[in-house]
């Protein structure tokens, strides 16, 4: 786990493997960003010229390493691109700082310590740099040789980060760093869960991890096993998990604050492996399906973050956990399931299983009468087709709430886009046998899934659905603070939503 501290030390006197500075893209070449004045002075004010000679432009994501100037205890200076120089009276913005810090942290993997001298005008900027650095330093090494990054050519994450220019005794700066540390650690734990192979993370194992964390942080936990699910009438969760030797679980995590005036319920899809069931996925589409529990991982991380931050809002997390496998006992296309809500669902495609486990969990969460329910799921390939691999879709039964979550996600640094729920698409889910089918029209499939879920929301309850199928698992190369593999998408949005709700900014 990467350590992070605020430091008042001078850049020249700090013992570290590298000093990180920012460089921006100016009209006539690279421009050294604020925070690097001492470093630039040691180059006789010619750091920008040296960087330009080395081919640096200041473009976002660019990394240039050069020997540190004489008199510095750190041997290397790492210049990281911040993008275009801001307009007059504007700042670089927290997103740019977060991404630059993450890029630098990734570039320094294997190093023991690095000092970050990026432009931070206030505590919010410092928090963004801390968050980006901690997320960028992430590494999943549990299955490498000797259980760590000690295999051939492997590098562990940057071990220690010192943020220069911070104010260790200032309450706002301390709070910003503590928040960044708590959220980043829980987000990275969510990444670990997403990256864990399904032979080691089945529903029971996931429930055990959540239970242990809940007890550590004073969160009340309840786990319903297959017997309790059967007795309770959770036909959706059981219908999905019945084909696997690893039975399903429904986990309830309850964080409460004595000062809370609002209650949020987060519901996460937790398919620990999705083969498609009898409607089997073809080769090329099932190799990364360990990530189909990313929604539950995000909900888990958000609830624990809320507890660690002591937010004055009640937050309940529901993890709907199952493994979707084909077998003689598996649900068949054409089967009808009686859901927890009492509705019946004709299963036309067993690979549309996420909405079945979510429907049961949403109906159960509705019984607590929360002020709002937000579900998170890697739900549809259709949403990936619509929004790509870096943006998640937001649907809701309340336009104002949908807009609020969109604003919150952007504030948190996560790309999202509001999506509609056209009522005419409901007809495509008409069933001659049951109350509703789990499939509808192919076109607009992500919206159809949202409409299906809406049917199970309790009357009068504000609800939103986040389809994170695109950004939840990065199959390409790493960028910014985003690693290859599990990303932890939606954790920061949920945490920021809880913070805004606690502050009375929503509802």
Chart the SSEs and their pairings.
Layout: E1 3-7, E2 18-26, E3 29-32, H1 37-42, H2 47-53, E4 63-67, E5 76-84, H3 94-107, E6 113-117, H4 123-136, E7 160-164, H5 171-195, H6 203-216, E8 220-224, H7 226-232, H8 235-241, E9 249-255, E10 263-274, H9 294-309, E11 314-324, E12 336-338, E13 344-346, H10 354-366, E14 372-377, H11 381-387, E15 392-396, H12 399-412, E16 416-418, E17 436-437, H13 445-454, E18 462-467, E19 473-474, E20 485-486, H14 491-502
Parallel strand pairs: 1-7, 2-5, 2-6, 6-7, 10-11, 10-14, 13-17, 14-18, 15-16
Antiparallel strand pairs: 2-3, 4-5, 8-9, 9-11, 12-13, 15-18, 19-20
Protein name: Probable cytosol aminopeptidase
Cofactor: Mn(2+)
Subcellular location: Cytoplasm
Describe the protein.
The strands form four sheets. The protein has an eight-stranded mixed β-sheet, with helices on both faces. The model has no long low-confidence stretch (mean pLDDT 96). The protein is α/β, with parallel strands linked by helices and 507 residues long. 55% of the residues are buried. The protein is 33% helix and 21% strand.
